[in-house]
Amino acid sequence: MIKIINHFLRLLLKVFPEYTFKYLTARIYRVIGYKSISSKARIFSSVKILGEVEVVIGEDTFIGANTFIGGGNCKISIGKNCDISSNVQIIGGTHEIDVLGDRIAGKGYSEDIIIGDGVWICAGAKILGGVTIGEKAIIAAGSVVNKDVESYTVVGGVPAKLIRKLK
Ligand SMILES: CC(C)(COP(=O)(O)OP(=O)(O)OC[C@H]1O[C@@H](n2cnc3c(N)ncnc32)[C@H](O)[C@@H]1OP(=O)(O)O)[C@@H](O)C(=O)NCCC(=O)NCCS
Q1: Tens digits of per-residue pLDDT, 65-96?
Q2: Which of 15, 51, 85, 110 could bridge to 123 as Cys pair (CB 3.0-4.6 Å)?
Q3: What are the residue ranges of helices labelled H in the chain?
């Protein structure tokens, strides 16, 4: 029964215009089971949160249209006062490389992602599993972040490298 209700709630999110219902979407995801999302977070209805992942989102954090948060059995923690732009992907899951098996994408596994308070992740960036982003860091548009990012720094590119320090 709970699964059916959750499917219905996800369906409801799909019919909302994609740039709307920021507070309602946060509350809907809490009902779906992501209970550590602050009811004071602002999440556009087109944001997708998927999987067994434990998602923490702090208060007054904004998450823009079509952003994806998911992975397998890991924790994705986003602090308070963060700005996550549109089309960002925060993906905790990956696969072991299996040279001897039938498929090269071998056994799946996940690693936690920790995003500190006040971080700004610009449009289209990708944050991979195992990464910690320090407070008030900026991730430039289109970056792929595969290593930890220090607080008060701007990083950018594929893979993301230091652009400048802010302090
Ligand atoms: C991260 C950002 C804010 C940095 O701005 P900035 O500090 O003013 O940076 P600058 O334009 O002075 O560029 C500094 C260096 O970073 C590089 N850089 C800037 N943006 C970059 C990006 N997205 N990827 C890779 N490198 C980037 C510049 O080429 C420049 O390198 P150089 O010194 O070798 O020439 C900006 O580049 C950005 O990505 N904005 C995205 C805005 C966005 O997503 N808006 C959606 C609404 S939130």
Answers
A1: 999 999 889 999 999 999 999 999 999 999 99
A2: 85
A3: 2-15, 22-32
